[in-house]
Amino acid sequence: MNATGASGTTPTDAVRSSISATVENYLAALDGLTGGPPVPALRHPLGFTCLPLLRGPVGICVHVWTAATTATRLTTSPFHCHSWELYSLVLDGAVHNQCLELADSTTDEAYRIFEIHSTAVVDEIRATADLVSVRTGEMWVNGTRDFYHLRSGVFHRTVVPGGEACTLVIGLSRPGGADRSLGPPDLGSHQRRRRYCDPAETVWLARGAARHLRNASGEGLVEQLSATAAGAYVTISAEGEM
């Protein structure tokens, strides 16, 4: 996504418009859908299904938690951090994020830090030499129509009470970092093959998410999230971090 504005617009306005247009185009494509969508939904090991709308320095996706889909196995733990800035709108349900405080450790209760490098086919989960202990910190409770921001590098775990929720997520890349997770200290490096939904399940998930997206868009909430993320993107770009 290009941060350079057209004549008469600011860079922030240009990025905001691009984000909003991506969501609108996604909804329009679903309205006329006769077959499977171009990008299948990913079964994420953290317990949700990811519907990607846009990949790139500004990534846009919808996360769906539901017991109606088959979960994939998590090999490390729910404790993780992103290499990118996360801006999210809760479209339906409730999402709790508990921040974690880490300290160096050599005890039996230690976790090992893993770096995660992903392709479309596999997640490469690389064990580091770092062992840490974990203390739970603040719990952020967000319900339907709430916004939240998770900074890159902040370890947390996400809990969805009742197991049903849907969020619109905008991710802003920061170069040089890696997604990380905590796992057992005796676990070594390994690969996990990425699992995708079939076309029928992807369409079912996308249409359910689209209902929530349309409602939020009609209330101006998608535009509000777009504006917030666009401002942050331009700031990061100006700092030379993108």
The proportion of strand residues reads 35-45%
Main beta-sheet strand count, sense and barrel state: 7 strands, antiparallel
What is the chains' assembly state?
single chain
CA-based gyration radius: 18 Å
Distance between the termini: 11 Å
SSE order: HEEEEEEEEEEEEEEHH
Count of individual helical segments: 3
User: What's the CATH H-level superfamily name?
Assistant: Jelly Rolls
Architecture (CATH level 2) name:
Sandwich
What is the mean pLDDT? 91
CATH class placement: Mainly Beta
Helix content: 10-25%
Q: What is the β-strand count?
A: 14
SS-based structural class?
alpha+beta
Strand order of the largest sheet: 9-5-11-3-2-1-14
- The overall number of domains is 1
Assign the CATH topology: Jelly Rolls
| Shape assignment | globular
- Poorly predicted spans: 2-7
